[in-house]
Amino acid sequence: MAELSPQQTACLAALAAHFSPATCLAGEDVPIRNEADTSFLPRTRPIALVRPDTPQGVADAVRICAAHGVAIVPQGGLTGLAGGAHPVPGAVAISVERLSGIEEIDAAAATMTVRAGTPLEVIQQSALDAGFFVPLDLGARGSCLIGGNLATNAGGNRVIRYGMTRDMVLGLEYVLADGTLVTGLNKMIKNNAGYDLKQLFIGSEGTLGIITRVVLRLQPRPGCTLAALCGVGSYDDVVSLLGAARRGLGPLLSAFEVMWPDYWKEATETVTGVRKPIEGQHAFYVLIEAQGLSEDIDGPRFMGWLENQFEAGLIEDAAIAQSMADVAMFWRTRDAAGEFQTILGPHVAFDIGLPVSRMDAFARTCRQRLADAIPDILSVYYGHIGDGNIHIVALQRGASPQPAAQISRVVYETVREFDGTISAEHGIGTVKKPYLGYTRSPEEMALMARIKAALDPKGILNPGKVFDLPSAP
What we know:
There is one protein chain. The protein has 473 residues and is of the alpha+beta class. Helix content is 32%, strand content 21%. It has 4 domains: 90 residues, Uridine Diphospho-n-acetylenolpyruvylglucosamine Reductase, domain 2 (2-Layer Sandwich); 119 residues, 2-Layer Sandwich (Uridine Diphospho-n-acetylenolpyruvylglucosamine Reductase, domain 3), CATH 3.30.465.10; 114 residues, Alpha-Beta Plaits, CATH 3.30.70; 83 residues, 2-Layer Sandwich (Alpha-Beta Plaits).
């Protein structure tokens, strides 16, 4: 670690004077896990790690850093893939991992007030225990924290029905760059009293403020979950099946996941514990989930819809869930991507958005361009096709380090050509920052810079993430 500046030394002294040794760790005492997120960027040790257990504690830590002009990197579960929580040299990391717990479930308002460091899986289970449902769901549900989900506006598996994370939020509390704690824990669905300030901070990746508490809108607990894993013969049939699901299942449709054969092969043949619900070779594998209120009513409706798709020739083969264990087994094929890091080793992961009609053309073009540019490249394709989101995992077999820059350039240039977005749900961080202009116009970039400058004039909150501030004239 480089020698500390006088400002950094004074900042660490002020933090140590204000917080207990268990809350403020410096130098060699900073845990190795806080030196990186899941983005494969080189480890960087923050000069200190502060772990407050109250919102005011977060505000105090930010205020002290701001007073000394020391940069801050907010951290949560460290499951992000874009480098948003990755430390930067000379910065203090502020983690919300101890700011955990569910403060209230309001059954009448159908809301839940939680602290930013609460794991998503804990929130999901607490809602179910109370007779409600939190639709946000990710493969990292056991380790990601709700504050990080909010900071990246996470999407997940059920966006087609419930929307992104921002669509589930009614109220928010956050700390500004000067240490001001702003509490807006609104519980009302209808509240048009001035600007909807919370939307500035949801998806801002910690560059505008640090989220401390949130009011989530709860949904009724589903009475039944229905699922089928289908083999489909062409991408045209996939698109037709999606349209049929929207028309025939309507609001029951909660997920429509598509896996290309390259992904299916890696997921079902290399990841331990993943079984093939259907056999044979198919052009595409589609996981369809529907959530209803009554098995007696919605079960026959789902089965009748599936039969119609067989008769229409849109489905070649299908396995139909007979229990929640079967539903979990189907989802295991889709969630297997979370274990690719262990099975395949270091790789480059992409989270992009595209017009649904062009996704297969994109996949074929991107796969070929990667193969032409990089010897012995593996790229696999899968995603939440129902909401226009496709994921890619790419790696050069046996290469260390991976040619990440070359792979990214090929993928993102193809995304730009197909009028897509470089980030559908994972954020920008530092990994995608060079390509943000592929998706956002110069005018949009300039407006984002103006907002950043207004809320964080010293540029201390997560510096270097999302975009670089323009140089002063």
